Input
Amino acid sequence: MATSKLLLAPEQKGVIQFIGSFLFGSFPQQAYAPLLGLLRDQGYSIVLYRFPLNPLQFNHWEVAIGLYREQLKIRALLSSYGEPPAFSWLGHSLGCKFIVLLEVLSHAPLRRQELLRTVLGAAAASELLRQIESSWPAPPFIRDQPSVFLAPEISNTVRLLRSSWRLRSPGTRPNQLQTEELIKGSPELFNLTGLVRFRSDSIAEDDVSFLEAQLAYRQPYPPLVQDLEGWHFEPLGLHVETLSRTIVSGLELLRSRITPNLTL
Output
């Protein structure tokens, strides 16, 4: 289950909701401190979604539903201060998968039910839909929130040094094939998603290529894919000034693409 912490910017021009990688996403304020500080310096408050360190947590649907519940609390809290700010998402590595699942669950109820039953099977979809119906007091407004994925790892496989060898988590839900089919089966979604690819990253290489191909044909704009020097865990580094500027410029570009027909 995810928990959250709010880091307010002195002069807030937007809110970035952040979820980090496996392990480091369990203590994001410490692990990503330089990057988070630079994002706040650019006027963005940060919502840190922290999930317990549990190497046996293979049910990623539960994490996504927990994120949704936390998001409702944060939105209500910030709205109580006045006009709701502009919300966006930022994920790193495995954290991107949870944002993907939230976006998939943003389908209208009948469309969501159809997609989940097609991809997961009737029994698994029914179980998940029961959890959603008990947790969804309002529409999950993810479709109109821009997202930037840093070195996304959504397939639950790790490629070893650009070889054919893979490390897999066979018990993960949804698994690699299901996750990819959920994205493929949602051509009306992910049109406000951008990618940051690190040139020396052999861990997320396949997933970035898959997402880039998906984004290329589903939106009226060219896909936002930005290449930077570094490796998979570059966002944890001390010298992330270029990365922080790339994230902000990407989110601002994606926000400029929002049109009324993209909202629920």
